[in-house]
Amino acid sequence: MISCDRSGDIWTVTIDRPDKANSLTHAMLTELAEVMEAAQVARAVILTGKGRVFSAGADLEAARAGLATSDVWERLSGAIAALPGLSIAALNGTLAGGAMGMALACDIRIAVPHAKFFYPVMKLGFLPQPSDPARMAALIGPARTKLILMGGQKITADEALTFGLIDRIVEPDALCDHARTLAADTVAAKPEIATGIKRMCGA
Length: 203
Fold this sequence. Notes:
6-stranded mixed β-sheet, 42% helix
C-alpha cells in the first residue's frame, strides 16, 4: 500500500490506501520509513497519496494498539528531514494527526484547494511526535502551532497558505506535475548545490 516510482532522479512515493483515507498501519509506516531511508540517494523526493485524502494518520485499530505514539513516526520524519535533495509534500487532500510530521519534515508543501489540516492530540489524549511542534512553529509561529495542537482547530488550505503551513495551492490534476516542475532545477544542478542551499537555509 506504499508505492515508490524510482525512475530517474526523482522518486515519487505514494500512500495508496484510498478506501481507508490513506490511514497507516504499522507495516505501512515502517515501509515508508525504509523507503525514505533508501531515498537518501535520490536527487528529489515527492511524497503524495491516492484519492481525496493525503492521510488520516494512524489506522484506528493500529492506533489502539499503540501506533499513535510509536517512535516509527519520528524515524520517518527524521529520514525525510535528512534527505540531501529537495523533498516535496504534494498533498492531494486532508492531512491529519501523526501524518502531519512527514509533511512538516519536507522542504516544500503544496496542496489541493479542498485539503484541510488538523492534529487532534488534545482530544485523543497524547503528545505529538517530539519534532512536530518545533517544525510547525518554525513555519507558522508558536501561537498558530498551539491553535492547531492545543485548540484542536481544523485549518483550510487557504488558511494554511496564509499561515505558511503550505507554500502553494495547486489544482488536483496538476499537483504531481507541479511538484516535478519544482524539482527540475534541483535535479539538473550538481548535488552539492542542493545540499549547500539546504544547509544555508538551516535545514
